[in-house]
């Protein structure tokens, strides 16, 4: 199982992730991405059917702002 969260401090609002994985990512008023599933807390398991899209979005983010882990982020960005 996978969890995801966006580091909004490094997101540059490029807009790639929401285009790639519209079921997972949307944008706030400033265009910064967040995870729809759990309001960017990283606590919701990404549904299996969205895992491929998640991986594509992860690979496509130019600033590596999309984080993926096998445990809940509990609202905290894990700095790799
Ligand atoms: Fe931001 Fe990366 Fe998405 S820069 S808008 S998290 S693709």
From TrEMBL:
Keywords from the named record: 4Fe-4S, Electron transport, Iron, Iron-sulfur, Metal-binding, Transport
Cofactor(s) in the UniProt record: [4Fe-4S] cluster
Pfam families for the chain: Fer4_13
Record's keyword annotation contains Iron-sulfur: yes
GO MF term set: 4 iron, 4 sulfur cluster binding; electron transfer activity; iron ion binding
Record InterPro entries: 3Fe4S_ferredoxin (IPR001080), 4Fe4S_Fe-S-bd (IPR017896), ET_Ferredoxin (IPR052395)
Domain 4Fe-4S ferredoxin-type: 2-30
Keyword Lipid biosynthesis: no
Entry superkingdom: Bacteria
Free-text function comment from the UniProt entry: Ferredoxins are iron-sulfur proteins that transfer electrons in a wide variety of metabolic reactions.
Protein name listed in UniProt: Ferredoxin
């Amino acid at each position: 199982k996978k969890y995801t969260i966006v580091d909004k401090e490094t997101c540059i609002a490029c807009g790639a992730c929401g285009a790639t994985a519209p079921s997972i990512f949307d944008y706030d008023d400033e265009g910064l991405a967040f995870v729809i599933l759990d309001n960017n807390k990283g606590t919701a398991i990404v549904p299996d059917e969205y895992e491929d899209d998640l991986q594509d979005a992860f690979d496509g983010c130019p600033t590596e702002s999309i984080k993926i882990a096998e445990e809940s982020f509990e609202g905290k960005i894990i700095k790799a």
